[in-house]
Amino acid sequence: MLFTAHIEGSNNLLFIHPRPIFKDSGRIPYILRTLEVQPDAPTRTDLDVLLALETRPDEDPFTRADKIREAFSVEKVTQQFYKDFHRLFECAELRITGVEDDAKRLFVLKLFNRLLFIRFLERKGWLRFDKRRDYLRALWEDYQATRSDNDTFFGSRLKLLFFSALNNPQQRNLIAINQGGQLRALIGDAPYLNGGLFEMDDDDQTAHVPDDALKPVIEELLYRYNFTITESTPLEIEVAVDPEMLGKVFEELVTGRHESGSYYTPRRVVAFMCREALKGYLQTATSESAEAIASFVDQRDASMLKNPEAVLDALRKVRVCDPACGSGAYLLGMLHELLELRAALFEQKRLDSHTLYERKLEIIQRNLYGVDIDPFAVEIARLRLWLSLVVDDTRNPLDDPNADVSLPNLDFKIEVGDSLLAPDPQQKGGSFDNEVIHQFEEKKAEYMRAHGDEQKRMLRKEIEMLREEIRQWAHADDVEGFDWRVEFAEVFKDGGFDIIVANPPYVRQEQINKAVKAKLLALYPDAAEGRSDLYVYFYARGVQLLKAGGMHVFVCSNSWLDVGFGGKLQEYLLQNAHLWAIYDSALERQFASADVNTIISILRTGRPSDDAPTRFVRLNAPFEQAVADPRHQRVIVRTRAELWRSGLNEQGMYEGDKWGGKYLRAPDIYFTILERGERCQVLVWKGAPILVEHIDPSRC
Asked: What is the pLDDT of residues 359-392, one digit of tens each?
């Protein structure tokens, strides 16, 4: 099916291709793939899609349906965008001079991020040059027509735009000042944005960016593709470059993913994990029933909630962290979930009357934290959060010069650092002056809202003084890695995070630097051994970061369920957490681009009772279908006591068990035999047929 619609208030056309997901439940949810086309300025993406829809009179309906499905493939757009991005990124890196080699890649990434951000802002209508809304192209064409011999586009136009407009709080809006002046003639109308993306650093002052580095970026990347400011949802996907696609580009380009072990998590998996984490959190933070919470989180149905005010309060207080945040998939996923839940409370219970933008800003400021070792990743994660704010801001600073659309500074929310090497943040005992931590929290919050380089510099100085006071209390000496207890002191004053959700790096043990491995083994002796892959240490660190009863949700390799080093991790988790569930897909890996068999684990921290159940869930249909319909799940339940006993050796020491082979991958006949074994004597010898003795067929 293919529908077309005219978008009210513009000349744009919207092409809509709905596809059903499944029909087993009696309802038919659809994925909507859309393409918005400006007839007077179509992009290359628009033309490619429309040309691919051409059909012949003699084509059968199935061939036509396949053509439509192929034409609306977002995956094809993503792959081609990455190829072009990668090619032009490498060319720009070669042509740009004036920046030290070890800093050049990050400089080029920031430059590309700035240009992409501007391209997204065009779609929002926040930039205008000579009355044109294709701002960057208009700026480039005007520069080409008026340039002097020694000019560069970066030096004569972009630096003015970046640092005299987008990062200049004294000039909130160029419309409101310098009417008809030289600055406006050079860069048009642009708002003050703040946020850190357009802060000038030393490399911006020394870099030489020739026009031949930027010309193909503008012509072959930024205006070849259709851009949309709205991130797609699992059920509504636009055939365009959206902020999420930047995360996929990051996966391919920025991290060197095979070296860092970073893989991009599909949106459907992110959404499921965030919802499971929130269900567990709300069961602890409120008195609502599990059934009411599940209906609220999964279906956005607040009708069963007995105290919706308490639920809203819990949602506003939750602290969520991704200790390996990468390009921000889980930060954006949790932002989306929290936003929709708060919107549901407003629509159904008339609670939380903030605007969508105000809710989103509050969630970013109060609820989300992220750390990653890769500064490239942190740049992308911050960019996506900024874009997510812009999309829901209904004001237009070009129409209202007094509209403050400045973005928050995320330096102390999404941070660069090694999440593993610092001491356990829960170890420090004794009391500390909470007033200092309170001041630390207040100054960081003030910094998020700060405008101007001087105000930020003064606040950074105050924050650093308070940090040093906290550090001297927390540690006798400096520590290596990201110091969680100090950097997020306001969180650990209250016991830790409520939710840790992550896709930890998959790095095999032989690829871990020997010196680093020795430090990790000293820090995590109860959870890891020499053969442990890197994600094992993230499991233990995730537990340490949580307050009692906190939710720990990971997607990672399934190797710890069976191999030798997994026994140590199994023992650690059985002693320090309630393993709620482990999900395994019988049909598909969760990373299309990764040669890794994965599982999703859901834990709650704290020593559970011996009868606490663990659900081993095998998904026997495509992921979205299986998690929504229990008929496509095989569930095996074992108590903590049963799991512990099955992993003991003859000396009574826990050495591990093959949880994956026994409970997730074993065929159904295995469990049939186990059930009948209570009535029939069943004996299986390695390499020999099954021997069954003393069987009464009527009883089996």
From this structure: 999 999 999 999 999 888 898 899 889 988 988 8
| Beta strands at 633-639 and 613-619: parallel, antiparallel or unpaired | antiparallel
Rg (Cα) of the chain, in Å, rounded?
27
Q: Is 272 exposed, middle or buried (0-12, 13-18, 19+ CB in 10 A)?
A: buried
Specify the number of domains making up the chain.
Answer: 4
Contact yes or no for 491/482 (Cβ under 8 A): no
Q: pLDDT at position 9, please?
A: 67
Find, among 418, 255, 387, 254, the residue nearest to 324 by Cα: 418
Q: Is residue 202 part of a domain?
A: yes
Residue 315: both structure tokens together? 């949602």
* In contact, 43 and 75? CB cutoff 8 Å: no
Residue 112: pLDDT above 90? yes
Q: What is the rounded distance in angstroms from the CA atom of residue 555 to the CA atom of residue 652?
A: 31
Q: What token pair was written down for 608? A: 């559970």
Task: Report the alpha-carbon distance of residue 121 to residue 447 in Å, rounded.
Answer: 24
- Residue 542 counted as domain residue: no
Among the candidates 492, 520, 547, a domain finishes at: 492
pLDDT-derived band at 260, boundaries 50, 70, 90: low
State pLDDT tens for residues 286-328. Answer: 999 999 999 999 999 999 999 999 999 999 999 999 999 988 9
Tell whether 23 and 106 lie within a shared domain. no
For residue range 159-171, what is the model confidence (pLDDT) as tens digits?
999 998 898 766 5
Within this chain, do residues 44 and 141 fall inside the same structural domain, yes or no? no
Alpha carbon distance 418, 133 (integer Å): 42
Q: For residue 153, count other CB atoms closer than 10 A to its CB.
A: 20
Beta bridge partners of 33: 17, 237
Domain hosting 676: range is 669-699
Task: Give per-residue pLDDT as tens, 73-87.
Answer: 777 787 888 889 989
Q: What is the mean pLDDT of residues 129-138?
A: 90
233: β partners: 236
What are the helix (H) ranges across 367-452? 375-391, 434-448
Tell me: do 212 and 117 sit in the same domain. Answer: yes
127 and 196 part of one domain: yes
| Structure tokens, 116 | 């992409």
At 518, the amino acid letter reads A
What does the pLDDT read at residue 685? 46
- The residues that bridge with 194 in the sheet, in sequence order, are 407
Residue 34 and residue 87 in one domain: no
Q: Would you list the DSSP string of 343-375?
A: HHHHHHH------HHHHHHHHHHHTEEEEES-H
Non-local CB neighbours of 560 within 8 Å, separated by 6+ positions:
533, 535, 536, 539, 566, 569, 570
CA 220 to CA 225: how far, in whole Å? 8
Decide if 472 is inside a domain. yes
pTM for this predicted structure: 0.87
Q: Of 197, 124, 123, 133, which is closest to residue 161 (Cα–Cα)?
A: 197
Task: Provide the residue type at 19 as one letter.
Answer: R
**Alpha helices (H) in 504-622, listed in sequence order:** 514-523, 534-545, 566-576
d(CA 490, CA 434) in angstroms, rounded, equals: 9
**35, 168: one domain:** no
Can you tell me the distance from the alpha carbon of 432 to that of 473, in angstroms, rounded to the nearest whole number?
A: 7
431 pLDDT above the threshold of 90: no
Tokens of 215: 């010309």
